[in-house]
Amino acid sequence: MEHHPPAAWLTQAASAAQHQSSGDLLRVVIVVMFVGCALTAWFLLRGYKQKDD
């Protein structure tokens, strides 16, 4: 396994980010939005649970 200095890794990551299409970013934004909406709904709706004693 080769050892790469952090600066070289950062340079490679930056060049790879320039070659990405906007579709990849949009896909990530949509997935994060759905996960965030699901967690928000769960957090808000858990307070409405009624206990049947």
What does this structure look like?
Keywords: Membrane, Transmembrane, Transmembrane helix. The chain crosses the membrane at residues 25-45. With 53 residues, the chain is mainly α. The chain is 70% helix and 0% strand. The protein is built from two helices and no strands. It has helices at 6-18, 22-45. The longest helix is centred in the middle third of the chain and has 24 residues, at 22-45. The protein is elongated and about 60 Å long. It starts with 5 loop residues before the first helix and ends in an 8-residue tail after the last helix. The model has no long low-confidence stretch (mean pLDDT 78).
What distinguishing features does this structure have?
single chain, 2 helices
Mean pLDDT: 78
Number of H- or I-type helical stretches:
2
The low-confidence parts are none
Tell me about the largest β-sheet.
none
The helical percent reads 55-70%
The H/E string reads HH
Strand content: under 5%
The whole-angstrom Rg is: 21 Å
What gap, in angstroms, lies between the N and C termini?
61 Å
- The 3D shape can be described as elongated
By secondary-structure content and strand pairing, the structural class works out as mainly alpha
DSSP strand tally: 0
Transmembrane segments: 25-45
Keywords: Membrane, Transmembrane, Transmembrane helix
Quick take:
With 53 residues, this protein is mostly helical. It is built from 2 helices and no strands. The chain crosses the membrane at residues 25-45.
